[in-house]
């Protein structure tokens, strides 16, 4: 390809504080519109903001997790612009002296590749409200519950070169903030939102092209689609002799289409100046070290522990530590069942498929770690074959009880009695004499495929309950005897 894609991200991470960044109003999601916006959030005359100490602790934790410099002096500015959901006419944010300075995140990509994405900085700021465009007969409604909710905005350097790398970074960031428990990671609720800056340039050039910004992407899939669509659009414009206009764009994940929103503003357009109502915030080395000691286990450390403690492969451990909820589900299942590898396989395969099918999040799964562990135990002790275990899992997921109850009710216990299996084998061989002769007359290289017929017949006769290992041993002994 003659073109190279250049991508930088601005990620809004909603901090999981109980109250807003400058007021005592609640940040709980789902309240009735305009019931959680107080006088301070609205900047009514005579009100003064007070910085939320927990927001600074969370931001410091994030900075330490991404190997960043921590700003011991951070200053709030006012970013002035008019929008209906910004009642103050300005957003209180950080510009010149943010809480988190330069850092980096290392990515593991397909094919064993690694990539370092530099973080320019991350700053604290307040969120705006929300405009509602439905059910208002051609007008817009404003919900100010979100106004004043604390955010950290993470700004990367333009280090990513594909949608794959951008999504990998976004997933890694999601894993970090949820593991730290500074953000719930619920993107459908706006807890993480991605603004993607995209430009293209001739391959080998060091000069950056004109960039566009696609705003407010709230899923990894939408991010990937939006990037690929915008890269294709920019290439088409340049190859047809046109020029890229610096602008803000929106992507609709339902229609798979993007549109121009407005020309892109520069910093000068916002007329930043220091907020006169908030003093600079000073933290010291003792505070930073105290925060470091209180930090939860990070994804990379957890992955290494899963490899060493549970004997998992690097790949499996990586999949299971993508987010905190999955890691906790696996670890609880493995601990109860005493069988980590089997637990890992079931979490990554059947449980994951069930959650996707039912649109459940793993933290709220109706198949609990206790229920899955009960199933794993019955596979481990030979009560269930892998095939029958899938039937039992289906019944568990339908709410029919735990594994033992379902096995008893449906009579699904695996048959491991050699005498009973031998009797079934004898009956199958007697009823299929021609196939037996064909097997014995065949070359060794062909027998492997032919034995599947006999296995299938015995399994059919046992209603799928014969122990596969015992069955194969008896079959081979009789056929080759």
From TrEMBL:
Gene3D superfamilies: 1.10.10.410, GatB domain, N-terminal subdomain. Keywords: ATP-binding, Ligase, Nucleotide-binding, Protein biosynthesis. The keyword Ligase applies. One of its GO terms (molecular function) is glutaminyl-tRNA synthase (glutamine-hydrolyzing) activity. GO terms for biological process: glutaminyl-tRNAGln biosynthesis via transamidation; translation. It catalyses: L-aspartyl-tRNA(Asn) + L-glutamine + ATP + H2O = L-asparaginyl-tRNA(Asn) + L-glutamate + ADP + phosphate + 2 H(+); L-glutamyl-tRNA(Gln) + L-glutamine + ATP + H2O = L-glutaminyl-tRNA(Gln) + L-glutamate + ADP + phosphate + H(+). Residues 328-479 form the Asn/Gln amidotransferase domain. Its EC number is 6.3.5.-. Heterotrimer of A, B and C subunits. NCBIfam families: gatB, PRK05477.1-2, PRK05477.1-4, PRK05477.1-5. Belongs to the GatB/GatE family. GatB subfamily. Allows the formation of correctly charged Asn-tRNA(Asn) or Gln-tRNA(Gln) through the transamidation of misacylated Asp-tRNA(Asn) or Glu-tRNA(Gln) in organisms which lack either or both of asparaginyl-tRNA or glutaminyl-tRNA synthetases. The reaction takes place in the presence of glutamine and ATP through an activated phospho-Asp-tRNA(Asn) or phospho-Glu-tRNA(Gln). This is Aspartyl/glutamyl-tRNA(Asn/Gln) amidotransferase subunit B. The lineage of its organism: Bacteria, Pseudomonadati, Pseudomonadota, Gammaproteobacteria, Cellvibrionales.
């Amino acid at each position: 390809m003659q073109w190279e894609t250049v991508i930088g991200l601005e990620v809004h991470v909603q901090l999981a504080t109980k109250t807003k960044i400058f007021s005592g109003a609640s940040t709980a999601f789902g309240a009735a519109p305009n019931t959680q916006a107080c006088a301070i959030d609205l900047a009514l005359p005579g009100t003064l903001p007070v910085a939320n100490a927990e927001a600074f602790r969370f931001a410091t934790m994030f900075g330490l997790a991404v190997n960043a410099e921590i700003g011991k002096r951070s200053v709030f500015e006012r970013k002035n612009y008019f929008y209906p959901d910004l009642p103050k006419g300005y957003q209180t944010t950080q510009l010149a002296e943010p809480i988190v300075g330069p850092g980096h995140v290392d990515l593991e990509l397909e094919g064993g590749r690694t990539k370092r994405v530099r973080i320019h900085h991350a700053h604290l700021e307040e969120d705006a409200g929300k405009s509602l465009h439905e059910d208002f007969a051609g007008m817009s409604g404003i919900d100010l519950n979100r106004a004043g909710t604390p955010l950290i905005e993470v700004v990367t350097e333009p280090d990513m070169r594909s949608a794959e790398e951008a999504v990998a970074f976004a997933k890694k960031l999601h894993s970090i903030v949820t593991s730290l428990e500074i953000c719930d990671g619920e993107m459908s609720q706006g807890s993480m939102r991605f603004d993607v800056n995209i430009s293209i340039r001739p391959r080998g050039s060091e000069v950056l092209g004109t960039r566009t910004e696609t705003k407010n992407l709230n899923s990894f899939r939408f991010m990937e689609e939006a990037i690929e669509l915008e890269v294709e659009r920019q290439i088409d414009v340049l190859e047809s002799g046109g020029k890229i206009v610096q602008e803000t764009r929106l992507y609709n994940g339902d229609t798979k289409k993007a549109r121009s929103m407005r020309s892109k503003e520069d910093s000068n357009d916002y007329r930043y100046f220091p907020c006169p109502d908030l003093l600079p915030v000073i933290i010291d080395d003792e505070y930073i070290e105290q925060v470091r000691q209180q930090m939860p286990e990070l994804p990379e450390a957890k992955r290494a522990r899963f490899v060493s403690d549970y004997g998992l492969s690097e790949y499996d451990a990586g999949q299971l530590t993508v987010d905190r909820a999955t890691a906790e589900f696996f670890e609880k299942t493995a601990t109860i069942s005493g069988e980590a590898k089997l637990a890992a396989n079931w979490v990554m395969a059947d449980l994951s498929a069930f959650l996707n099918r039912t649109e459940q999040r793993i933290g709220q799964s109706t198949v609990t770690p206790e229920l899955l562990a009960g199933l794993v135990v019955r596979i481990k002790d030979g009560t269930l074959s892998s095939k029958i275990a899938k039937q039992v899992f289906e019944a568990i997921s339908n709410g029919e009880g735990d594994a033992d109850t379902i096995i008893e009710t449906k009579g699904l216990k695996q048959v491991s009695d050699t005498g009973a299996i031998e009797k079934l084998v004898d009956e199958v061989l007697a009823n299929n004499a021609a196939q037996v002769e064909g097997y014995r007359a065949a070359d060794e290289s062909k027998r492997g495929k032919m034995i599947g017929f006999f296995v299938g017949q015995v399994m059919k006769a046992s209603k799928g309950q014969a122990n596969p290992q015992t069955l194969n041993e008896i079959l081979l002994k009789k056929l080759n005897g």
